Structures are given as C-alpha cells and as structure tokens.
Amino acid sequence: MKKILVPTDFSNQSLNAIKAAIILARKSSAEITLLHILDLPNQGSDSIHTGSKAPEVIFFKDSAEQKLNNLAHDPIFEGLKINTSLILAKTYQGVLKACETNQCDLIIMGSHGTSGVTEYFLGSNTEKVVRYSKIPVLVIKGEVSDFKITNFVFASDFSEGAKKPFLKAIEFSKILDSTLTLLMVNTPNNFKPTYVAEQILENFLENINQEEYNLEIYNDLDIESGVRNFSKKSNANLIGIATHGRTGLSHFLNGSISEDLVNKVNCSVLVFRMA
Known about the structure:
Elements: E1 3-7, H1 12-28, E2 31-38, H2 42-49, H3 55-72, E3 82-88, H4 91-102, E4 106-113, E5 116-117, H5 125-132, E6 137-141, E7 151-155, H6 163-176, E8 179-186, H7 194-205, E9 214-219, H8 223-233, E10 238-243, H9 257-264, E11 268-273
Parallel strand pairs: 1-2, 1-4, 2-3, 4-6, 7-8, 7-10, 8-9, 10-11
Antiparallel strand pairs: 4-5, 6-11
Helix pairs in contact: 4-5, 8-9
C-alpha cells in the first residue's frame, strides 16, 4: 500500500478518516492525497469549464483551495508526503476519478457510525463509491485516537472469487498487526453441516501462505445478522467484506447487505472489490 486517498469536506467525520490514514501511512510508508470535491450545480460547474468568472463560483473554489492548503500543512502530517486535489465533479465520480489519476491503493472515508453515512457522502454517494471502486474502501466509524485494530474479522462465503480480497485482507492484517478471523455465516436457507463448512474453508486456504488466523463458523438467521452479531460478540475492531462492484454484490453479500453493514455496525468496515 503506497497511496491513500482521503476525501474531505473538513468535517469531524472526514477528520477521523484523516487520522486513520495518518496511522496507516506511517505503518506502511504510504503517501496521502487529500481530496476535496466541489459538487456545484450544473451552471456553476459549466462556468468554471467555460472560463466564466461567476463571483460565487470563484469564491467557493478559492475558499476550498485555501482550506485544503491549510489542512495539508497541519502539523499532524509531520514526516509524511501529502498531496492535495480539488475537483469539480459529482461526488462519487470525483472520488473514482481521483483514485485513477493518483493511482491510489486505498480510499478512507469517515462515517457517523450507526446513525448513517458521513455528511460528505450523503445519500447514495457512499454506496456508489463502495460499489464502483476498484480499490479497497475503508469506512471509519466514530472518533479515532490510535486506530488500533486488534481483531479483524473477514466475512466471506470463501468461494474462488474471494481469494483476491482475502489476500488483501492478509496484507492489511499484517500492516495493522491484528488478529485475523475468517468468518463463515451459516443460515437456515443455506445451511451447511460443520464438516462441509470446514471442508470449504480448507479448500479455500489451500496454497495460501497465512498461518496465523482463526476460523469461525457462526449460525444465524441471515448473513447480515450473523456478521453483526459475531463481530459484536468477538469485539471486532474491523470487518472486511467483498463486493462484485457494478455487477451487483456477491451471492454472499447480495442486495443491500454490505451497505447495511457499513451503516449499522459500530466498528469500521473495509470493503474489497472481487474479481
């Protein structure tokens, strides 16, 4: 992990994401790009691109540039390489564009926690960033002091498509120096006897060189409840899940399950893109 993108609206929620990014950057020798997006009305955006000097547009742009510059020079970034980017775009499109332009490896966003998504990523923007991003998206919940992750739960159906996200989860676990727990949720609609579940996990882990992890099979009424209840029971600091992206979520995390987890669980959530 070499480049971290942190979208910011200068709110407390985005500051929490920045604090987590600083800790990860120091642990992995990564650089941070601070991104601010001016999601202007169409006429405002048009005036920028056509060279018009609409006073209100120039005011917002200059004000945002000043805030971004001041933030980048904050002492909290001492010793780190910090880049800044100001984009005129729709929010989620701007995030995805900035990721590609800056060749980032990780997006970090702040959140209110169980009360909903960050002020900056209102409505469907978080959903769209998570769904369409080709790189992992880390959603930070609540206040961040030292972002010490001791228990990282990676929930999956452990199908072949989950191997790439799992390898990324291993990388994060090592950076964070956390205990990695592999979680398979057993539900009435797709119940597997223990020996079958264990065989699936064994086949999944074949040829994967990762010795230090825990394996857990947890029974619950549905996938979302299983992930939430197990994570709460085990005092997880971080939950890892995977999505197929624009083709829809995996059959393990279908419908709105991943989005519900991002919004409802108390701990931070790391969403990976499946192949």
